[in-house]
Amino acid sequence: MAPGGKSAGGKAMKKSGKAQKNIAKSDKKRKPKRKESYAIYIYKVLKQVHPDTGVSSKAMSIMNSFVNDLFERIASESSRLAHYNKHVPLP
């Protein structure tokens, strides 16, 4: 009886182990989506130009918006020129 009792106990332990794994998976928090930014590149250039100068988060946000706006304007101008010349723009 002892071997049968141990195996039954082992099966019960395995079942409870699976149940705990399922609970653990559902309790995991999702990581927030990554926000793309040019902050690290702006900071690297700033350190090359002025090594002893820092930048506030508000100023970094403004610079990031500025860079995004520039890229958007370049893309729209490229699209407009391609339409005028009847060429497909580069991807």
Automatic annotation (TrEMBL):
Residues 1-34 are annotated as: Disordered. Residues 1-11 have a biased composition (Low complexity). InterPro entries: H2A/H2B/H3, Histone-fold, Histone_H2B. It comes from the Eukaryota. One of its GO terms (cellular component) is nucleus. GO terms for molecular function: DNA binding; protein heterodimerization activity; structural constituent of chromatin. Residues 22-88 form the Core Histone H2A/H2B/H3 domain. Belongs to the histone H2B family. This is Core Histone H2A/H2B/H3 domain-containing protein. It comes from Macrosiphum euphorbiae (potato aphid).
